[in-house]
Automatic annotation (TrEMBL):
Keyword Nucleotide-binding: yes
Gene3D superfamilies on file: 3.30.390.30, FAD/NAD(P)-binding domain
Biological source species: Botrimarina mediterranea
Keyword Glycoprotein: no
Protein name per UniProt: Soluble pyridine nucleotide transhydrogenase
Gene: sthA_2
Molecular function via GO: dihydrolipoyl dehydrogenase (NADH) activity; flavin adenine dinucleotide binding; NAD(P)+ transhydrogenase (Si-specific) activity
Length: 489
C-alpha cells in the first residue's frame, strides 16, 4: 500500500473504496488524472459491498444452496440434504476466501492504475482540502475535485437492545456463532427477505415482519406472490402491515418482539433490518458547505454533482437505488461529468434479488403499466416447461415479458427462479435497443438453456395477440378484447 506523498495535491480525491469510489478512481486514473482514494481501514478496502454486504451475503447464499442440496430437492425429495449438519463456520468458510481474492483484485487495480490508497478517516478541512487521520497522524490532501462514496451503515434505533448475538443487525449476521432454531426478521426489505429465506432454506423457523401490507412493492406483484408462496412452503410466516413497537432480550438465548397491534412473538434470534443510514457522521460536511438529510444522505443533481460544484457524491449515500451495480456506474458517470467527458444515461436499471428462489426484473411491472393505461400484453414461460429448468430441478420458476400490444416492443421483463438474475440481461439488451417480441420468435437460442424461456414467453405472447386477430371486426373495444385474450390463455 502506498503512502500519501509530500505534495498531496490531487486532481481527484475519492472518499470510500466501495463499488462507487473504486470505479470513479479507476476511471479518473484512466483519464490521466492524479487520484487518491481514502478508506478508513486497510482491511475495509472494497467497502460494505465486499465486507458486510453484497459479496459475503451472496457467497453465503451459494454455500447454503450447495450444502443443503437445495437444487437437488426436486429430484430427491424435500428431506434431501447434501450435509446432515451445517454450522456457521461451514457457511463462512468460502466467504473469507472470496473476500481475500476480491480484495487483492481491487488493490492490484489501484496499484496498476497509479491510484494512491490512503488509509484513515477522511473529513473536510475546507471545500478543497480533505484531512485524513492516518495511523501516523493527520495528512492533508488538496483536491481539485472531491468524490464522496462513503456508503451507509445499518439503522440502529437506540431503544433496540442489539448484542450481536440474540438481537443483531445485518452486519453482525455474518458473525453469528451458531445457526439458530428460529429467527424473527424485523423489516421485510431486500436484506430482511434475502437473509430470512436463506435461513429458512437451512430449516430455521423464520417470521418476517414488515409495516407495509405488501412485500417488495417495487417488484411485479405476481413475482412477489410466487416468492411468498415458495417461502410459505419452506415454513416462513409473514406478519405484514404490522409495526414493531419494541424488542427485548429474554434470558440469554431468546428475544421477544412486541408489535404495535399488541401481539408478542418469541424467537431465539432477531435480525433487525429496517433500512440503512448514510455514513456521513465524521465527514465534517459543513466545512465543505454541504449538509446531509435526516437519513444522512447527500443530495445530488445531474452528473452526481452536489450543490458545491466541484464535489460529487455516488453510491448508497445518494439514496435510491442503493445497489452495488448502480453505484459502480454512478462513479464512472460522475468522473466523466467532473472532467468534461461525455457519458450516456445509464438507462433502465435491473434488479436482482438473491432470495431463494432468486428474482429479477427490468422495466415496468404490470401494476405500473395498468396505472399508466398502457396497452400491454403478457407472454409467460414456466420453467417447468423449459428443458433446462427440469435439469436444474426448478418446477416453480417463471419468466414473463410485458410488451406493447401494437408495436410489440418490450416494456418489462420479470423472472423468478433458476438463473433469473443472469437471464434478465437478455431482456435488458433487447429493451435498450428498442427490440420487439419478434426478435425472440426468430432467434435460435442455445439448447437446453434458461435463455430459451425468452423464446417460449415470446411465442406465448404472440399467440395471445393472434386471439385479438380472431375477434377483429366483431365490434368490441380494447377492454372486451383483453378479456377474450385472457380467456384464450
Ligand atoms: C446485506 C447486503 C446485501 C446486499 N446485496 C446486494 C446485491 O446483491 N446486489 C447489489 O447490487 N447490491 C447489494 N447491496 C448493496 C451494496 O452493497 C451497496 O449498494 C454498495 O456497497 C454501495 O457502494 P458504495 O460505493 O456506496 O460504498 P460502500 O460499499 O458502502 O463502501 C463505502 C466505504 O466508504 C468507507 N468510508 C465511509 N466514510 C469514510 C470516511 N470518512 N473516511 C474513509 N472511508 C470512509 C467505508 O469504510 C466503506 O468501506 C447489499 C447490501 C447489503 C447491506
Ligand atoms: N440483491 C440486492 O440488490 C440487495 C440485497 C440487499 C440489500 N440491498 C440494498 O440495501 C438497501 C437496504 O435494505 P434494507 O432491507 O435494510 O432496507 P429497506 O428500506 O429496503 O427495507 C426496510 C423495511 O423495513 C420496514 N420497516 C421499517 N421500520 C419497521 C418497523 N418498525 N416495523 C416493521 N417494519 C419496518 C420497511 O417497511 C421496509 O420494508 C436496499 O435499499 C437495497 O438497495 C440490495
Amino acid at each position: 500500500m502506498k503512502r500519501a506523498t509530500a505534495v498531496n495535491c490531487f486532481d481527484l480525491v475519492v472518499v470510500g473504496s466501495g463499488p462507487g469510489g473504486q470505479k470513479a478512481a479507476i476511471c479518473a486514473a484512466k483519464l490521466g488524472k492524479r487520484v487518491a482514494i481514502v478508506e478508513r481501514q486497510k482491511e475495509l478496502v472494497g467497502g460494505v459491498c465486499l465486507h458486510t454486504g453484497t459479496i459475503p451475503s451472496k457467497t453465503m447464499r451459494e454455500a447454503i444452496l450447495h450444502l443443503t442440496g437445495f437444487r437437488q430437492r426436486e429430484v430427491y425429495g424435500e428431506q434431501y440434504r447434501s450435509r446432515k449438519s451445517i454450522t456457521m463456520d461451514d457457511l463462512r468458510h468460502k466467504l473469507q476466501h472470496v473476500s481475500r481474492r476480491e480484495w487483492d483484485v481491487i488493490q492490484d487495480q489501484f496499484d496498476r492504475n497509479g491510484v494512491e490508497t490512503i488509509v484513515g478517516e477522511a473529513s473536510f478541512a475546507d471545500t478543497h482540502t480533505v484531512e485524513v487521520l492516518t495511523p501516523e497522524g493527520p495528512v492533508h490532501l488538496a483536491a481539485d475535485k472531491v468524490l464522496l462514496a462513503p456508503g451507509t451503515k445499518p439503522a440502529r434505533p437506540k431503544h433496540i437492545p442489539f448484542d450481536g448475538r440474540t438481537v443483531f443487525d445485518s452486519d453482525e449476521f455474518l458473525d453469528l456463532d451458531r445457526i439458530p432454531r428460529s429467527m424473527i426478521v424485523v423489516g421485510g426489505g431486500v436484506i430482511g427477505v434475502e437473509y430470512g429465506l436463506m435461513m429458512a432454506t437451512l430449516g430455521v423457523r423464520v417470521t418476517i415482519i414488515d409495516g407495509r401490507d405488501r412485500l417488495l412493492d417495487f417488484c411485479d406483484r405476481e413475482i412477489v406472490d410466487s416468492l411468498v408462496y415458495n417461502a410459505r412452503s419452506m415454513g416462513v410466516t409473514f406478519r405484514l402491515g404490522e409495526n414493531v413497537a419494541d424488542v427485548r432480550r429474554v434470558g440469554l438465548n431468546a428475544a421477544a418482539v412486541e408489535l404495535e397491534s399488541g401481539k408478542r412473538l418469541l424467537g431465539e434470534t432477531v435480525l433487525f433490518s429496517v433500512g440503512r443510514q448514510g455514513d456521513t457522521e465524521f465527514l465534517n460536511l459543513e466545512a465543505a458547505g454541504l449538509a446531509p438529510d435526516t437519513r444522512g444522505r447527500i443530495v445530488v443533481g445531474e452528473g452526481f454533482q452536489t450543490e458545491v460544484p466541484h464535489i460529487y457524491a455516488v453510491g448508497d449515500i445518494v439514496g435510491f437505488p442503493a445497489l452495488a451495480s448502480a453505484s459502480m456506474e454512478q462513479g464512472r458517470q460522475a468522473v466523466c461529468h467532473a472532467f468534461g467527458v461525455p457519458a450516456r444515461d445509464m438507462g433502465e436499471i435491473p434488479y436482482g434479488l438473491f432470495t431463494v428462489p432468486e428474482i429479477s426484473s427490468i422495466g415496468k411491472s404490470e401494476q405500473q403499466l395498468t396505472a399508466d393505461h398502457a396497452p400491454y400484453e403478457v407472454g409467460v414461460a414456466r420453467f417447468s416447461e423449459i428443458a433446462r429448468g427440469q435439469i436444474a430441478g426448478d418446477e416453480t420458476g417463471l419468466l414473463k415479458i410485458l410488451f406493447h400490444r401494437e408495436t410489440r416492443q418490450l416494456l418489462g421483463v420479470h423472472a423468478i427462479g433458476e438463473s433469473a438474475t443472469e437471464i434478465i440481461h437478455i431482456g435488458q439488451a433487447v429493451m435498450a435497443f428498442g427490440g420487439t417480441l419478434d426478435y425472440f420468435r426468430d432467434t435460435v437460442f442455445n439448447y437446453p438453456t434458461m435463455a430459451e424461456a425468452f423464446k417460449v414467453a415470446a411465442l406465448d405472447g404472440l399467440n395471445k395477440l393472434a386471439a385479438y386477430d380472431v375477434t377483429a371486426g366483431c365490434g368490441w373495444g380494447d377492454a372486451e378484447l383483453a378479456d377474450v385474450a385472457a380467456l384464450a390463455v
